[in-house]
Every structure is written in structure tokens, then in C-alpha cells.
Amino acid sequence: MEKPRVAVIMVPFPAQGHLNQLMQLSCLISSYGIPVHYVGSAIHNRQAKVRVNGLNHEDVEKIHFHDIPTPSFASPPPDPNSPDKFPTQLQPMWDASLSLREPVASYLRDMANKFERVVVVHDSLMAVVVQDVSSILNAESYVFNCVSAFSKAVFTWDLLGKPLPIEHPKELPSLEGCITDEIRDFWALQFEPLSYRAGDLYNTCRLIEPAFMELLEREEIAGSRKSWAIGPILPAKLSSSASQSESRYRCLEWLDKQEPNSVIYVSFGTTTSLSDEQIKELAFGLEQSKVKFLWVLRDADKGDIFDEQVRRAELPEGFEEKVKGVGMVVREWAPQPQILAHPSTGGFVSHCGWNSCIESITMGVPIAAWPMHSDQPSNSVLITEILKMGLFVREWKQRTELVKASTIENVLKILMASKEGDEIRKRAEELAATVQQATQQGGASKLELDSFISHITRGNDI
């Protein structure tokens, strides 16, 4: 009996922003009629499904999830008072993920017996786990980069100990202070296994990061491997699935009642916990600005998000009552792509994680940048200095300082109610038109995705 021809195996890194992007990519590749298998621990497969944002439920149903046994790991709470905002509470989980190598290798060998070709698409931080793909004759692997081309280039040349060889803003954030020694060591483990990859995928659009894509395609970085810039990989039509909680509907219903471009959306992603003192300053800054706001106030994730013991951050007494009609505070998981796509949303106070940036770019929403760790400081430079679709709330060099209410108030007024803010918004809308067109039939990113699909199905009439 003839074997089915190609299967794609997704191996995500267990952190929300990474799980999310590989879920989006899974649905995209599946739309070409290729079976896609999403591989991870039971906890993280469940997390990926529970937190599906904007994806169509029927598309997710087509993905095959495979739970790999993972050793138990400590799941401590985040420390909101730490001056260093890197999510060290997730390190035990990441260390535990290294033990997936053997069961993943066994799974890949099993799949290689069932399909003519097995294509592994893995996060760059999972190279150690998938490295045995190199010993399977009918298997090949591709790295999916969950960061901007700019951040990847900044980090790559930083690790080489060389200056970025093209024109760039004077001050670039170095890795120092962005990450911990532990995650740097974790990265270092990936370097040799990364050499086994057959190519690179990027969740960016070549039209907005051309110079940085060219840098990453240089022979000294990519070798003879091909790169595909296929982003943004958000679905063209965002779904409002029936699995949404009441609060999700509430915040979107609240936005329905507001004027176009009148609301600032405030969210710091899944890996940042603000101190009580900073929460108070942010609350007062929002109140004093008189700008309408939707504020997602949640603690950073623990390794196991299903462990219900979560800190409930305190707001100033009577705050929600005082801002009734002007602002809304959401404490649950929020449908961010739908919020950013809403016509009432006119700005985004963001930590500048790449999911948030690429969603904001796609929806044409200008950003008030407040980077916290990892690639966020370099993403914030990309947004403010290179793409010119945002401004800083707080620059990276001032990361240890408390951001005062007066600073927040001032930035919100500039972004939401000034000529400068209007110009930034116009620029954001122009970029949105560019990347939206790029993902449509015949567009730059769609052509690169088609090229990748042709490459992995080469020699097959799929």
C-alpha cells in the first residue's frame, strides 16, 4: 500500500507567544491540504487550544495534537517586584522540555515509517529536542523564527561580537539585561543542532523588513539554506468563536459603543507582572489622561497556566467606579487580535512582544512602547525608530525606573490627541495596507508561503 506523501510536524517552544504562532502556522499549512501534527506536552497542547486567538474553530479541528510525556516541573509564581522583568518562573518548565528529545525522536521515526516525507517545523529554541531528525533519511527540519527579522539580526550580530553591518538607530539594545544567564545557556545548547536545519521561516513581511531579511540570508548566517518571510501569519478573517467567555464578549461589546480610534488598549502580554506601585501609577496616568481605555490586567503566566492560584493585582481604591464609562479593566484572557482589529481601538500600550507588534502592524494600530525583556527592547526600536509607527512610554535604558503617572498621561495624550499622534497613526495604517496586501493572492508573503509549500511537497503531486 502506498504511503501518504507528506506530513508536517510542529514542535513549539512552551511559552504562549511561541505556542500561538505555531498554531497560526499549523492552520495556514493545513489549508493547503497537508496533514499537520502539533507536538508538545499535554499541558501546553491544551494551553495552545484553550487560548486560540482569532483562529477558526474548524481550522483548529483539522490539526492533529500529539501529547508527549514530560517530567513534572516546578511552577512558581512570577515575582512582580523583581526589577528584572524576565519570566524566570518559566525556566523550570523550559529545562524540563529538554527531556522531550528521546520521545520526539521516537515519534518522528514512527511518522517516517508512515509517510514518504516528514517535515519538521520547530521553534529555534527547540533545536536540541528535534536534532535526531538528521538521522532519519526521509525527514527534514525547518526553523520557525518567532521574532522580528530586526531582533534576530541584532541578536545574531551581538552574539558574533560584531556591530550590525548596516545603517541603524544609534543605540541598539544588547542582550545584556534583556535575558538571564540561564536562558543564554539554554540558547547556547541550540547552536549546534540548529546547523541541521534545511531552511528558515520568518513571521515577518519582506516589504517592511527588507534590509534585515537580507542580512539574515547572508551566507555566513544562513549558509546555502533558503529563507521564507511568510508573515504576518494571522488569519485573514478573525473568528469570534463560540468558546469565548462572557468577558471576551463584554470587552468587544464595550468597544462597539465607543467612537472610532478613541480607545487605547493596554496589555503587557503573558510574561510580565507589574508591581503594585507601577499598577497604581498606570491607573492614575490612564485616569488623568481622560483617554478612553481597555486595560487587560493579568499576572504573568506560570509554567502550568491551569494551576488556579494566581495573584489578583490591586487597583487604587474606587478606581473602576471612577472611570466607569471611560475605561474598562479585563482580568481574564482577552481576544487581542479582535480588540486591535476593532475600529474603536486607536492605540496600544504594549510590551512589544512580537505577537503584539505584528498584530498591531497588521491592524494599523500605533504603539506606545514599554519593553520589558528578551526581544521586546529591539522590537520597540523597530516600531518607533525604523517603522515610525509608535513612540516610547519608557526607553529601555530607563528600565529600572518607576514610570510615573504624568509620563503615561503625556504619552497617551500625544498618541491619541495630537498632530504627532495623527501622523504616527497614518504611518501605522499605511504599513497595515502593505502587509495585508502581502498576504493576499499574488502578494509578497503569500508567494513566499506558496514557495515553501512547493518546496516541502517537491516531487509529489499534492
UniProtKB/TrEMBL annotation:
Top-level taxon of origin: Eukaryota
Molecular function GO terms recorded: UDP-glucosyltransferase activity; zeatin O-beta-D-xylosyltransferase activity
SUPFAM superfamilies: UDP-Glycosyltransferase/glycogen phosphorylase
Domain Glycosyltransferase N-terminal: 5-235
UniProt keyword terms in alphabetical order: Glycosyltransferase, Transferase
Pfam families to which the protein is assigned, alphabetical: Glyco_transf_N, UDPGT
Keyword Transferase: yes
InterPro entries the record matches: Glyco_transf_N, UDP_glucos_trans, UDP_glycos_trans_CS
KW Glycosyltransferase (keyword) present: yes
Protein EC: 2.4.1.-
GO biological process terms held by the UniProt record: cytokinin metabolic process; glycoside biosynthetic process
Similarity-based family: Belongs to the UDP-glycosyltransferase family.
Protein's recorded name: Glycosyltransferase
Organism: Erythranthe guttata (Yellow monkey flower)
